[in-house]
Amino acid sequence: MDEQISSFFPVLLFLAVVVGFAVAAMTATHIFPKPRKKTPAKDMPYESGMDPEGDARQHFDVKFYLVAILFLIFDVELLFLYPWATAAYPPGDALRTASYLPAGLSNPVFLVMLLFNATLILAYVYAWKKGVFTWR
Questions:
Q1: Are 63 and 132 in contact (CB under 8 A)?
Q2: Is 66 exposed, middle or buried (0-12, 13-18, 19+ CB in 10 A)?
Q3: What is the pLDDT of residue 97?
Q4: What are 94-117's pLDDT values in tens digits?
Q5: pLDDT at 96
Q6: Following DSSP, what letter does each residue of 18-43 receive, concatenated?
Q7: Where does residue 101 fall: left (phi above 0), alpha (psi -120 to 50 degrees), or beta otherwise?
Q8: Which of 50, 87, 94, 116 is most buried, judging by how many CB atoms fall within 10 Å of its CB?
Q9: Surface-to-core class of residue 8, CB atoms within 10 Å of its CB (0-12 exposed, 13-18 middle, 19+ buried)
Q10: Three-class SS state of 121
Q11: How many CB atoms lie within 10 A of CB 84?
């Protein structure tokens, strides 16, 4: 039992350091408060170092968000494909002599990945037909 508890010691030490840092940071903000002098320059909204112009509530084209979402979808696709590809085709895996297909192709997971890719291709074609990738 003592051996099991000692294996959790690094985790408990890390937890104590994290809680201690959080408490020290919160205490330091109350001990050393920031200056309270208000000026018009300090009260102005921050716009990446540039003076703000016009209204902040501008309308953005929806196509920007559609392209951003499509980028995320196809980026996440790679997160699914890469682990499968490295697990299905380990380095040095040779072709079977009795078949013209690699050994990983007989795995049912390959069919699932084909379905996954087909769904993504359909989504890409649908977005293309809707004109998401054309800019005005």
A1: yes
A2: middle
A3: 42
A4: 544 444 455 656 667 778 888 988
A5: 43
A6: HHHHHHHHHHHHHHSPPP----HHHH
A7: beta
A8: 116
A9: exposed
A10: helix
A11: 16
More confident residue, 90 or 70: 70
Q: What is the pLDDT averaged over residues 33-62? A: 73
pTM for the full model?
0.45
Note the residue count of the chain: 136
Q: For residue 88, with 0-12 CB atoms within 10 Å meaning exposed, 13-18 middle and 19 or more buried, which class applies?
A: middle
Q: How far apart are CA 67 and CA 63, in angstroms?
A: 6
How many whole angstroms separate alpha carbon 34 and alpha carbon 3?
Answer: 48
User: What is d(CA 99, CA 102) in angstroms, rounded to the nearest whole number?
Assistant: 8
Answer for the pair 16, 10: CB distance below 8 angstroms, yes or no: no
Domain boundaries, the chain: 2-43, 62-91+98-129
